[in-house]
């Protein structure tokens, strides 16, 4: 069962910025919805 959970998280699509739509480089504990460029605005 643990293997299924690991595969689930590996197969999640990359997170995208809610503002511009660019892919966000994030850590697992990150809750940001905007990329660093859009966050500065």
TrEMBL record:
It comes from the Bacteria. It holds the Pfam family YhfH. InterPro entries: YhfH-like. This is Protein YhfH. The gene is yhfH.
């Amino acid at each position: 069962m643990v293997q299924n959970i690991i595969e689930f998280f590996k197969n999640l699509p990359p997170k995208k910025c809610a503002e511009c739509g660019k892919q966000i480089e994030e850590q697992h504990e990150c809750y940001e919805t905007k990329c660093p460029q859009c966050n500065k605005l």
